[in-house]
Amino acid sequence: MLLRLGIDLGGTKMEIIALDDSGRELARRRMPTPQGDYRGTLKAIAQLVAATENDLGERGTIGIGTPGALSRRTGLLKNSNSTCMNGQPVKGHLEELLDREIRIANDANCFALSEAVDGAGIGAETVFGVILGTGCGGGVVVNRHVLTGINAIAGEWGHNPLPLPTADDLPLPDCFCGKRGCNELYISGTGLARDHLKVTGESASAEAIVARSQWNDLNCEASLQRYEERLARALAYVINIIDPDVVVLGGGMSNVERLYENVPRLWTRSIVSDFVDTRLLRNVHGDSSGVRGAAWLWGSGDSRRNRR
């Protein structure tokens, strides 16, 4: 049996999971991420691995998912929300500490891989995985291979500009990335709340807006309709480029059931095809998709570009 260990390295917590060949969960544990402590974070990862392997009595492969990515030029980590990890040779240091090769991928790529291997996209050739939460991330998996790209940004559609802005979308808001009008500012859960405040003057969470739309609150219903139309536009451009079999949603907005009927109906307006068979599906593994995808970086047919 090949023991696969996956680690989800978050800004506040880290989690490890152990999977067998079939994807059955054998063990799971989590601990707080040491704040602002690079060496402490590496040590904590090593402790999770050692404890899990001791419990199972077996040595495993190790994959790590992080909000950042390894720079293709330098091999250093970039864009992680554990900011002390940025600019560091994380892969090399961990391989030395753990005495084996490891694989590191962006957390959205891990989400997409998990759902492609044994989740909502199982059996599909091309899967586009989308995380719609506080921010907006994406990953592409083809035949169970994660596409990383020459710049390590494949699938990162959150900081593409929202396609064909309408009067309702203007003025284009500034994004922390330095650009304006990014998808993330409109189609994340935070983006829904921002738009609702802009139009109505009322501060409300995405969850509250969705709930109140079901109670015939006309302002919340209008905000959710704008959100659906924007999400449809943004996804249509992805479909026009990579033509995926399946789009899988994750993050808090993936729990909004009406999206799965309304968005495919709307995206046909912007897709250049006489028919659209791409399916929009809710994730199967929920919050576990990221850590499971990290484990599947071994033995799933991961992209060779991940093996820096």
Topology, pairings included?
Blueprint: E1 4-9, E2 13-19, E3 25-32, H1 38-56, E4 61-66, E5 69-70, E6 77-78, H2 90-98, E7 102-106, H3 107-118, E8 126-132, E9 136-142, E10 145-146, H4 184-187, H5 189-200, H6 206-213, H7 218-242, E11 246-250, H8 259-267, E12 279-282, H9 289-295
Parallel strand pairs: 1-4, 4-7, 8-11, 11-12
Antiparallel strand pairs: 1-2, 2-3, 5-6, 8-9, 9-10
Helix pairs in contact: 1-2, 3-9, 5-7, 6-7, 7-8
CATH uppermost class of the largest domain: Alpha Beta
CA-to-CA gap between the ends? 26 Å
Name of the CATH architecture of the largest domain:
2-Layer Sandwich
- Could you tell me the number of beta strands? 12
Structural class: alpha/beta
User: pLDDT below 50 for ≥5 consecutive residues: which ranges?
Assistant: 301-308
> How many discrete structural domains?
2
How would you write the strand order of the largest sheet? 3-2-1-4-7
**Overall spatial form:** globular
User: What is the average of the pLDDT values?
Assistant: 93
Strand content: 15-25%
CATH superfamily of the largest domain: ATPase, nucleotide binding domain
> What portion of residues is helical?
25-40%
Largest sheet: 5 strands, mixed
The tally of helices reads 9
CATH fold field value of the largest domain: Nucleotidyltransferase, domain 5
